[in-house]
Design brief:
The chain has 524 residues and is of the alpha/beta class. The chain is built from 18 helices and 14 strands. The chain has helices at 26-39, 53-65, 90-96, 111-118, 122-138, 150-156, 158-171, 187-198, 215-224, 246-256, 264-267, 270-281, 305-310, 337-346, 353-368, 377-389, 437-449, 501-519; strands at residues 7-10, 43-47, 72-78, 102-108, 142-148, 175-180, 204-208, 229-232, 397-407, 413-423, 426-434, 460-469, 478-487, 490-498. The strands form three sheets. It has an eight-stranded parallel barrel with strand order 1-2-3-4-5-6-7-8, surrounded by ten helices. Strands 9-10-11 form a three-stranded antiparallel beta sheet. Helix 1 packs across helix 2 (53-65) and helix 1 runs antiparallel to helix 12 (270-281). The protein is globular. The two termini are 44 Å apart. The model is unreliable at 330-334 (pLDDT under 50). Bound molecules: zinc ion (ZN). Zinc ion (ZN) binds at residues 15, 179, 181, 207, 209.
Length: 524
Amino acid sequence: MADDRFHVYDTTLRDGAQQEGLNLTVADKLAIARHLDDLGVGFIEGGWPGANPKDTEFFRRAQTELDLKHAQLAAFGATRRAGVKAADDPLVAALRESGAPIVTLVAKSHSRHVELALRTTLEENLAMIRDTVSHLTAEGRRVFLDAEHFFDGYRSDPAYALEVLRTAAEAGASVIALCDTNGGMLPDELADVVHEAAGTGARIGIHCHDDTGCAVANTLAAVKAGATHVQGCANGYGERSGNANLFTVVANLQLKRGFDLVPPQSLGEMTRIAHAITEVTNVTPNSHQPYVGTSAFAHKAGLHASAIKVDPNLYQHIDPAEVGNDMRMLVSDMAGRASVELKGRELGYELTGEESRRLVERVKDLEAKGHTFEAADASFELLLRDTVDGERRRYFTVESWRVIVERRPGGDVVSEATVKLHAKGERIIATGEGNGPVNALDRAVRLALEKLYPELAAVELIDFKVRILEGTHGTDAVTRVLVTSSDATGEWATVGVAENVIEASWQALEQAVTYGLLRAGHSA
Ligand SMILES: [Zn+2]
């Protein structure tokens, strides 16, 4: 469990999910939570149970499907409604029953918002805070309070804003996070207000939005002024210009200010984790993102090449390995030999120097073509086995495939795929129908192979993501497809890259089935 003296609190699954164009399924949220836990954050806010059915479902499934090593889950919700008891408010009950040990309550701290948005009295708002916090703490939950619009509230009515803090702290809230909800603050003024707030004796947290481009700077300024709890989102996701980027905040505090926030080896996974999360969100990664972006340590060498070679530290602010990134002087994505060897070990292979050299070469070559292995472990393992065993284990070989997409009179669009395969000495031809070409291909492959490999019945294609990658250096754009499959015991992801989306999908599907058979313990 993380040290309680300083909190790293992630709100990707709640506030980050407000980002335009971002839409997370419950499975996506569970996957992101696992990644954040791998990073070692102390708290993961899962959403608003009771107000949002998907979030209620998230907390229900989290109880059996999430095995968190570092983080504790927080359920987000509002203080009770005006005029009812917290104990009788169904939304408060949903928080209580979410199974989360932490409840983060959002409360108004701006007097005009109390009157205009809540349409209640200032006194009743304080009573709502007092009652809800003390009810939930009496029920054994740890309560954090998000003081909404705190900085604007402080500017217009400082006495009331501070009264909200005191009330929450006295009622038992263990942290009061000051929210720059509009994101309009600059570091110097924000720090002054945080300092005043810390003077009340309440434990102060900070929650910043990036509307001025200062969310991270504001967070750091708040910490210097006394905040001991920082909130933010993976990759800076969030509404409008986003929330404070939690990765940048953590790296800054740990590497520049000496805070001991996450295990150093987890910090060394930060780049991988940041990218793995973008594959779940399907938001194109920001290559210029501090610390973890692919360009964060990329040098256009030119005149400096030889100097960089002699002493790269002259040209970069930290050793990129500390955050799991790499200095790059070339265009390819470059898997490091060390990470390839490490990954091989994780999969049960002790690679010789020669094997890892060959594997790194293949990974680099494929990544330059648009493959990504950070998010496609199964494809990496197949590649590793190819490299070590010579030729990939073939459960089947492909003679050909074909897909037809037909728009029928009336408007229905259907797809039909035919595959011709060889397996166990037989030539098999099978046809599958589906609502789309990939679905049809998937069905055709299963039909062809299920008699020979009945275990395939348990393998399911659960996710399919397509991204168009811009061409580099005069090449055309290519399509990358990531397929996630599952069986009774787990999930795995495979990747395909081609100019044609169906061909890219086929590559990912073929590997998905091969890997599924490998898991089922077949020897080809
Ligand atoms: Zn927010």
